[in-house]
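Lecture notes, unit on protein representations.

Consider one protein chain, 212 amino acids long.
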Amino acid sequence: MKVHVFPNNPFQENTYVLTDDSNTCAIVDPGMSNPAEERAVSSFIEKEGLTPTLLLNTHCHVDHVLGNKYVYEQYGLLPQFHEGEAPVLSDVQVRAPMFGLRYEQSPIPEHFLPEEGEVRFGNTALKLIFAPGHSPAHLCFYQPDSAILIGGDVLFRGSIGRTDLPGGNHQQLLENISKKLYVLPEDTVVYPGHGPETTIGFEKQHNPFVRG
């Protein structure tokens, strides 16, 4: 699996397009907030000859769901996330105007994702890791063969997700990082919701909030 990143919106949220050798792709956390950002993602997909077959949200804070409707309209994909994020998504209608962001209401999943299991696109299986704390029902997506974790806003390079938003829980976040992420192989590359990638091994040694 390969990971392609598109920083979007004023929060510089990382939108990810995941690809493999099947010419299909998954879109994770589409944060596109204007036509130029939408074109950057769709042009890449078209240029690479890809067919999007999966739309995932790690969680439903405003900066991670701004492009859900665009992806639905372009590719017919409904978002998939944990049911515990549904109230967070509903709140986006209120929060987006507070930040001056254009928000076209996201469609609702037909099926919510569980806490454990996997989702698939093409020849790739992504394992679900339930890691709330930053948000009430945050999921990470782990591809063990590629040693890749799409981590959302749980763990950053040298930092962790904020926990002062509704549904946040600082102690829960620390425990999930320690018990669910730090048990992954140290060479696992973490692609976070903001900023540069890191590795599990680096964070276990250097993260000031959670040491392994």
